[in-house]
Request: fold
Amino acid sequence: MPISVLLVDDVVEVRRLLRTALRFRGGFEVLGEAGDGGEAVRMTASLHPDIVVLDLGLPDIAGREVLSRIRDTSPRSKVVVFSGAEPAEGEWIADNVEGYVLKDADLDYLVDLLESVAESREGQATLDLPQELTSVRTARQFVDEMLAEWKIEELRDDALLVVSELTANAITHAESACLLRLSVTEATLRIEVVDTGDGTPEPQPSSNTEEHGRGLHLITALTTAWGMEVIPGEGKLVWAELPLSA
Reply:
């Protein structure tokens, strides 16, 4: 599904540049454009875009007020400010938007931010991890933060055990940097780790002396399913799914 966007700016040329940048990047759908605050609020209420790209210097409604109205009319829409100057109420604005970009920034930076915001909104998040032992701790912290953002902290203990095992396998056994990807639906939390190393994860027979392979028995016990997919020419993806409570 494309990321739906509403562009709000009183300068037509700015909206045209934004529309063009999003079209060239791909994966976005511009639902509409608004040239003032009143129109922005009306269009947000009717279109409910994934993201509103908002200029705070609109001719009819002050920045804080238009932002509050957009939040009221479409609570699920994310707001990224794209403005020419820092606002007078910068701290309040920062606490109520998903991103703030000044207009002298590179447009690619803005588009990257929009992709990141949309990814978070859809319950997906990714993190690149270097081939370092500290990456396991970094992965655990990342999972902890995302579960709190998604309000599914009840999975914390199990998710941290699973992500520790999968990232440690990639770093120590596959001897590879890896990509950690989380995604959440109404029923499951899916944890994926992609690496470029050799070998495949295989549970070992239960033993009181051997450590290698025992973590996969733990994953089997904690998850509804787990598995591995080969990525031709790139490596492999190991995944596991944890059930969400009703």
Summary: Confidence is low (pLDDT under 50) at residues 204-212. The longest helix spans residues 156-173. Strands lie at 3-8, 28-34, 51-54, 78-83, 99-102, 124-129, 178-184, 188-195, 225-231, 235-243.
